[in-house]
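I would like you to help me understand the sequence and structure tokens below and explain how sequence relates to structure.
___
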Amino acid sequence: MRLIRAPTRLTQDRTVRRTTAPTSPSTAPEGPMFRIVLRSVFRDRHRFALPAFAVLIGVACVSGSLLYTGSLARDAERLQRASRPDVSVEVRATGERAAADEALRRRLAKLPGVAVARGTLRGWAFLVAPDGTLVGEPSADIGVDHLPGARGADPRYPMTVGRGPHGPDEVAVDRWAADLAGYRVGDRVRVVVGGEVRTARLTGVFTVDDPATAAGGTVTAFDAATARALFAPGPGRYESVTLTAAGGTSEAALAERVAAVVPRGLDVATRAELDAEAAQSPDRKKLGTILLLFAGIVLFVSVFLVGNTFSMLSALRAREHALLRAVGAGRGRVLAQVLLEAALVGAGAAVVGHVLGVGVAMLLGTLFGPAAGPANAVRPDVLAPLPLVTALCLGVGCTAVSAFLPARRAAATAPVAALRSGLPVAASASRRRSWAGGVCAVLGASALATAGEDLGVLCLATSALLAGLVLLTPLFAWGVTRVLRVPVRRLTGVRGTLALANARRDPQRTAATSGALTVCVALVGAVTVAVSSLSATAEQEAMTAVPGDLRITAVDFGEIGDGTAARVARLPHVAAAGSVREAGFGLPDGSHLWTAAVDPHAVNEGRLVGLRVRSGDLSGLSRGIAVTTDLAEERGWRVGDRVTGRRLSDPGTADGPPLDREIVAVYDGPEALGPALLPERAVTGGGRPAAGVNAVLVRAEPGRTDAAKAEIHRALRNPMLLVEDRADAARAARQGFGSLLSVLYALLSVTVVVAALGVANTMSMAVLERGREIGLLRAVGLRRADVRSMLRVEAVVVSVLGAGLGVLAGTAAGRAAAAGAGAVVGVPWVFLLAVFTGAGVIGVLAALGPGVRAARVPVTRAVGGEVG
């Protein structure tokens, strides 16, 4: 037998030097990097599933928002063109001093190149169904003027059945409204205009492609004379004058001729400019900004998940990276490989997310679209360049940015050090992180305390506070697990001890996992506290706004007729009724004074509401003005002083009728009758532009409030009017904020889902990373149920930690926002406790899958460290 001599130490040293010596580029790892990365991504596809899904959700929200707003802009431009097929140039007033009137229309009609010049009118008109309800959305119910041309037809409203209206007792309506209400030509219909219910005969049904009908509203056409009486901003004035260009005349050329003759204060717009304005609606931009803000929050939360995944993958693949470094791969190659993996994951998620964005756009159309209206489905352009490029850039960019720090740590590790299974975090880095977090948290909290009404400062302060808390989470995790060690050990035994030890082992990973929940819960808490405070304030204000037994107000976009109070006062069970009109005046010092104009006799005799007179006498109100005690002290006014100024016009300029009245009384009273009182005829008579009726206050006979309410409903038969007592007003105020909260919760729920995925992903990766540890625990007697329980406790601790910090930050931000808005701050502790408890439920659910997977792996395989 041939003896084999053992290698000498010199031989061993030479072998080691040959093995570890740097290799030339020709001996570097073989194969293109892209192929290696593809193989690696495919191999670890189950590990990338959850982070890819989180990015997919964020990209789908962004793409859906862009596709939805883009489809709205295209539809608005199409509707603008379809609803006004004969318009080449429009002349419209930009202020009160210049007007588009009949004289201007005639002058423009004589210009060369003008085929037709129309004076158009448009206002609120609400069609009432036979059962007494409104047809369509009140915010989009409009009335228009029917202007037949030489052939007896109006090209804007082509009749499909019947004819156009002639005279004040005839109307025509759009086909969708007629079908919805069940009206036919010849029926008697009711229309609410100017706060009064009008009954007219339906003479025609027309087709129209109008923004109003697209928003779920109705279009009611009146003859020209009736429309002027109902909608004209003044005698002989129009909302606008539209011109149709004659053959051979371009829009631009016609606009130049028109601009040369119109007076200053009038705007001249071509058809192309009108279409562009329709596509660039400020409300649509605001909605798009809000949707993109929520989508950005989803992507931001996804960053936590992606970064945590690549951090844990770097630890799991430390040996692989070390071998690459050992055979010649430089830091740049390892860094590029990890980033390329992230880019591939992000690109795949972006493509699928953009496709799902089509469904998100349709869902947004359902969520923010009209509750009623003709079928107007959202038609998103899937291949529109902006959403597609944005989706790809965000998907790739977010994953690459999230993976950069883990990739850099993997690339910076020396080959020999990387062969170790784990690397402790430098204490200096932890100290720097804690100091930075403390500074951010203190600055954010201080800014929140002084933010006031400044929304920008409020957002920056909240962001700084959240950033500080996230940076401090490792320190909080260490402290919380230390505090919980004794009670958890008593409740769960060794399982809880092991779970807390795992949470403390890598506090930065715990911080990254709970950080997503911190952001989500903080947003939910801030929204809840702020909206709940505003709701409580609105509820209190609504109750104080009903100083009498009942109050009659109009729904949004509706009006109260001038004769409503007189009609109500004659009803049974009504002791008194009076109108309240609001009028503003500009004072000589540049400030504004808002007054309530009322019937002076009803107020003086206390028939409507009792007022406490501090000085003077309300009997002289018909010739003077009364002011509240607070206003008198603020201005230094006394009985006998004179108040002078000018009535505010619509744009808020003090160029209306003059005010010159003596203060006859100083009083205390409800907010609805303040801060000053004028007699009603001061804002309605003498040729002055009348102030609209804001409300009608009603005093019922003793014990007959409900009967009086029923009588008012029967007498008015106007669905645009609300008859409320204090409880009704409070309930209505509450319901409005409840709807707002529902929409906000629906948007924020997506971020909560992503945060829950982050906890589940961390638990799954922890099972893979701690395979040998789990196997050893199983080998020494830990049961499968104990393994599942251990992961559950760890997930609950991480989730509750994140939720607790989120509740703290959200409550502070919500209180600051409510205080800045002047609301009565109220914290819904029960709801916040439910959110905190829900975080624990999220932890339990997130640990179910990983716990089952870890418990089912054979002990022998787990001891080998292979659990995936």
Summary: The CA atoms of residues 355 and 580 lie 55 Å apart. The radius of gyration is 36 Å. The chain has 28 helices and 24 strands. Confidence is low (pLDDT under 50) at residues 1-31, 421-429.
